Amino acid sequence: MSIYEDYRLKREKIVTAPDAEKQHKEGKWTARERIDYFFDPGTFIELGLWVIHRTTAFGMDKREVPAEGVITGFGKVNGREVMVASEDYTAMAGSFGEYHGKKFAQAMDFAKEKGIPFVGMNDSGGARLQEGMDTLESYGWCFRSQILGIIFHYFEEIAIIYYPLYYFTHIKGFRLLLRDDRFQIGNYSLRIVFCNYLWAFFFVVRGKEG
Q1: Are 139 and 96 in contact (CB under 8 A)?
Q2: Which of 183, 4, 10, 158 shows the shortest CA–CA distance to 86?
Q3: CB 22: neighbour CB atoms within 10 A?
Q4: Which has the closest alpha carbon to 131: 101, 108, 152?
Q5: What are phi and psi for residue 83, nearest 5 degrees?
Q6: How far, in Å, CA of 9 to CA of 65, rounded?
Q7: Torsions phi, psi of 177, nearest 5?
Q8: Residue 122 φ/ψ, nearest 5 degrees
Q9: What strands lie across the sheet with 174-177, from one edge to the other?
Q10: What is the pLDDT of residue 39?
């Protein structure tokens, strides 16, 4: 097998959503289908396709997460350049790991540096528990990269999202809820935070492990 054929097969494996039919049955598009619909045909350029996690604990050394569960890149919408980060629920429930967060933060930084709008499409099972503190650090990168008041940014919540994404999406310029059957884990009342964590844990594990 030539190096070019090997490259083609690896790329095809990454961009092919394994649970696309399941997404469609739930009334959702895959992350790449959303991107194809959003951008002008042939204009989207993906960044970070080959990014992989570095975690070895809890069996992660044997687990592949295509594009780290989030597709980032830029293209044109009605002729204007736009940056996007679209979370992929078919890749380990779109869970927010260290390099998932790094891709997200770098996408916002890219948009800020270029002065172009940023669009986030959230469809995630929340923090990737297997990566522990590395996951929490990635949330810090995203908060540090906030672009409110600098450029236009817009977030769509495709389905259920979990703490701390609940807070992350609340500090955007514009936020759109696309379905009415979602709940959001996270509450400003300290008395029920612990209950919310237990409730979140059940759904996170169900989403990531089936």
Answers
A1: yes
A2: 158
A3: 13
A4: 101
A5: -100, 145
A6: 16
A7: -90, 120
A8: -90, 125
A9: 45-47, 70-77, 80-87, 118-122, 153-157, 174-177
A10: 96
Do residues 43 and 79 make contact, with C-beta atoms less than 8 angstroms apart?
A: no
Q: Going residue by residue through the chain (210 aa), what tens digit of pLDDT does each one get?
A: 688 898 899 999 899 877 888 888 888 889 999 999 999 999 999 999 999 999 999 999 999 999 999 999 999 999 999 999 999 999 998 888 999 999 999 998 999 899 898 888 888 877 888 998 898 888 888 888 876 666 666 566 555 555 555 556 555 555 555 554 444 444 333 333 334 444 444 444 444 444
**Is the Cβ–Cβ distance between 34 and 69 less than 8 Å?**
no
Domains plus CATH for the chain? 3-209 (3.90.226.10)
Peptide linkage before 18 cis (omega within 30 of 0)? no
